[in-house]
Task: structure prediction
Amino acid sequence: MPFIDDRLTPRDGLNNYTISVARMTPQMQARGGVEFIFCISDSMQAMAELTVMIAARGQGLDQMMVEAHDAVIDILRQLVFRSDKSRAVYDRYTRRAASVAGEDELNEVELL
Result:
């Protein structure tokens, strides 16, 4: 089986997932601001929504949109970081189990 790098560099066309602003909701409480709701979807349907609140500081809607995208990028980077840490734990388990059991045998982690 060919080697496939599981740390693929992001690029257009890698998969069918997209993220886009679905809607904006003005928030009138306290200092106000805008709640930006992003929709994560594949080519067929919406999969999830991600909401970020951007405080109004007189920066205008375009700058608030930039800040909302920055907030979502930070959230997604953190999720990738945590997923990678979790993956590393399972990778250690499978490597340890493979060295003890032999390469041809399935172990507990592979069965999950």
Summary: Residues 18-111 form one domain. Strands lie at 18-27, 33-41, 46-55. The first strand starts at residue 18 and ends at 27. The CA atoms of residues 51 and 58 lie 21 Å apart.
